[in-house]
Protein backbone atom coordinates (compact mmCIF):
# COMPACT_ATOMS: atom_id res chain seq x y z
CA UNK A 1 0.00 0.00 0.00
CA UNK A 2 1.44 3.42 -0.84
CA UNK A 3 2.91 5.31 2.08
CA UNK A 4 0.91 8.51 1.52
CA UNK A 5 -2.39 6.65 2.03
CA UNK A 6 -1.31 5.50 5.49
CA UNK A 7 0.11 8.88 6.51
CA UNK A 8 -1.11 9.82 9.96
CA UNK A 9 -2.09 6.23 10.86
CA UNK A 10 -0.19 5.06 13.92
CA UNK A 11 -0.03 1.39 14.79
CA UNK A 12 0.88 0.65 18.44
CA UNK A 13 2.92 -2.38 17.37
CA UNK A 14 5.05 -0.36 14.97
CA UNK A 15 7.48 0.90 17.65
CA UNK A 16 7.87 -2.60 19.06
CA UNK A 17 8.57 -4.06 15.65
CA UNK A 18 11.24 -1.42 15.01
CA UNK A 19 12.88 -2.24 18.34
CA UNK A 20 12.87 -5.95 17.51
CA UNK A 21 14.37 -5.24 14.09
CA UNK A 22 17.16 -3.16 15.67
CA UNK A 23 17.92 -5.86 18.26
CA UNK A 24 17.98 -8.55 15.57
CA UNK A 25 20.36 -6.45 13.47
CA UNK A 26 22.68 -6.02 16.45
CA UNK A 27 22.53 -9.73 17.25
CA UNK A 28 23.33 -10.74 13.66
CA UNK A 29 26.20 -8.24 13.52
CA UNK A 30 27.69 -9.59 16.76
CA UNK A 31 27.29 -13.17 15.59
CA UNK A 32 28.97 -12.36 12.29
CA UNK A 33 31.80 -10.68 14.20
CA UNK A 34 32.44 -13.54 16.61
CA UNK A 35 31.92 -16.42 14.21
CA UNK A 36 35.46 -16.26 12.79
CA UNK A 37 36.87 -16.26 16.31
CA UNK A 38 34.87 -19.37 17.20
CA UNK A 39 35.95 -21.14 14.04
CA UNK A 40 39.58 -20.13 14.51
CA UNK A 41 39.43 -21.76 17.96
CA UNK A 42 38.62 -25.08 16.30
CA UNK A 43 41.50 -24.61 13.87
CA UNK A 44 43.78 -23.72 16.77
CA UNK A 45 42.85 -26.92 18.62
CA UNK A 46 43.48 -28.97 15.48
CA UNK A 47 46.88 -27.33 14.99
CA UNK A 48 47.77 -28.02 18.61
CA UNK A 49 46.80 -31.69 18.20
CA UNK A 50 48.95 -31.99 15.05
CA UNK A 51 51.89 -30.35 16.82
CA UNK A 52 51.52 -32.76 19.76
CA UNK A 53 51.54 -35.78 17.42
CA UNK A 54 54.60 -34.39 15.66
CA UNK A 55 56.45 -33.86 18.97
CA UNK A 56 55.64 -37.41 20.10
CA UNK A 57 56.94 -38.82 16.82
CA UNK A 58 60.15 -36.81 17.15
CA UNK A 59 60.60 -37.97 20.75
CA UNK A 60 60.19 -41.62 19.70
CA UNK A 61 62.71 -41.17 16.91
CA UNK A 62 65.19 -39.54 19.29
CA UNK A 63 64.75 -42.41 21.74
CA UNK A 64 65.49 -44.96 18.98
CA UNK A 65 68.56 -43.03 17.88
CA UNK A 66 69.85 -42.83 21.46
CA UNK A 67 69.39 -46.60 21.92
CA UNK A 68 71.35 -47.28 18.75
CA UNK A 69 74.24 -45.07 19.86
CA UNK A 70 74.51 -46.69 23.30
* Percentage of residues assigned to helices: over 70%
Nearest-angstrom radius of gyration? 30 Å
Quaternary structure annotation: single chain
Overall residue-averaged pLDDT value: 80
Number of strands: 0
The biggest sheet amounts to: none
Q: Can you write the helix and strand succession as a string?
A: H
The percent range for strand residues is under 5%
Overall geometry comes to rod-shaped
> Treating each run of at least 4 consecutive H or I residues as one helix, how many helices?
1
Detailed description of the structure:
The chain starts with 11 loop residues before the first helix and ends with a helix. The radius of gyration is 30 Å and the shape is rod-shaped. The longest helix has 58 residues. The chain has a domain of 30 residues. It is an all-alpha fold. 0% of the residues are buried. The protein is 83% helix and 0% strand.
Amino acid sequence: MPRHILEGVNCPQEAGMEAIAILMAIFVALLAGFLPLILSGKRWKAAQARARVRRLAEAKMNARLLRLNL
